[in-house]
Amino acid sequence: ALRCVAWSPDGTTLAAGTIDGKVHLLRADTMDPLGVLQMEKRTQWVGDIKWSPSGTYLGVAGHDSFVDIYEAGNGYKLVGTCKGHSSFITHFGWSADESMLFSNSGDYELLFWEAPSGKRIMNSGTCRDVQWAGYTGTLGWPVLGIWHKGADGTDVNTCDRQPHTAACLATGDDRGLVSLFRYPALGGKGRIYGGHSSHVTTVRFSPDGKRLYSAGGADTCVCEW
To answer: How does strand 23-27 pair with strand 168-173?
Structure first.
């Protein structure tokens, strides 16, 4: 069963993570298989996949608490592993210059890493002014204001920053609602939209930033906004 997917920046390759820890690489236009990535002892499901902005690297985060970094132009050779979380990885992202990553985990940690080595950055203050290539994490300074009153750390499941303009941030939560905030979301109420009859698992903007797509859980519904 699939858990997450990601397109390469040039749109030619699709990476699909599965519940058994594998990443299937597919040709995006024909869905022909190109290969399968799986490190030894990686048997937990893949929770997030992201290509670096240039497509040079592919990051794979799993429920075994690691983020593995593969070099796409070198036969998808493993070039780094981010080790340090004590719970499963929920979200991660690349810096615009591909020199850093951030990651969120199930126990609400926010950690930073050098890329592509995966070495942990112990002084998070050095990452304060980093320009991120998109932001899908639910923890971090740019998303401090996305949590509604009474929410715990599991209530907001997903978010995505609008591409190009970075003007707004969309979230999806356990109430079945999609919300829009000004980015960075540091406080104030967002605009709230209903449509799902179950929790929202994922929100993503279209590449041009003009549309937003949300996927529900038990309602198995995809909404276009």
So the answer is: unpaired
CA 79 centroid distance within chain: 20
Q: Round to whole Å and give the CA distance between 173 and 147.
A: 9
d(CA 21, CA 29): 24
Give the integer Cα–Cα distance in Å for 179 and 192: 4
DSSP symbols for the chain: -EEEEEE-TTSSEEEEEETTS-EEEEETTT--EEEEE--TT--SPEEEEEE-TTSSEEEEEETTS-EEEEEGGGTSEEEEEE---SS-EEEEEEBTTSSEEEEEETT--EEEEETTT--B-S-GGGGTTPPBSS---SSSGGGGGGPPTT--TTSEEEEEEPTTT--EEEEEETTS-EEEEESS--SSPPEEE---SS-EEEEEE-TTSS-EEEEESTT--EEE-
Alpha-carbon distances of 132 from 15, 16, 189, rounded to whole Å: 21, 23, 24
pLDDT of 57 > 80? The answer is yes
Alpha carbon 186 to chain centroid, angstroms: 20
Q: Give the model's confidence band at 148: pLDDT under 50 very low, under 70 low, under 90 confident, else very high.
A: confident
